[in-house]
Amino acid sequence: MNKSKTSFSENCYRILKRVPKGKVTTYAEIAHALGKRSYRAVGQAMRRNPYAPQVPCHRVVRSDGSLGGYAWGLAKKKALLRSEGIKIQGEKVADLSACFKRLSL
DNA sequence: TATTTGACCAAGA
DNA sequence: ATCTTGGCCAAAT
Prior knowledge:
single chain; two-stranded parallel ribbon; globular; DNA-binding
């Protein structure tokens, strides 16, 4: 039998897939949804991005509303988010509170 | 195994 | 408002 991969990264993608289109989340929120405080490790998993572009890692931004980073290029991330109806100003999300998706309940 | 790294966060100056 | 510092944790080297 195949043992389920319970890697930290795998869990991150699972939570990330939970975010609908037109919504965004933060690294801290994903970690919190996992019941962990490893905000940084979440970003690490995205940077490697072993499941790109299957996982909408472009919907993850920083708590401050800044875009953070993107493995394929920050400019690309801005275009994608804007394409989903998210307003972006400069390098930050204009209405983070509006499109913020709370994973932990 | 130990050390370094990083798409972070919060607080302080 | 910006810049710096410390902390935090998993993955990579």
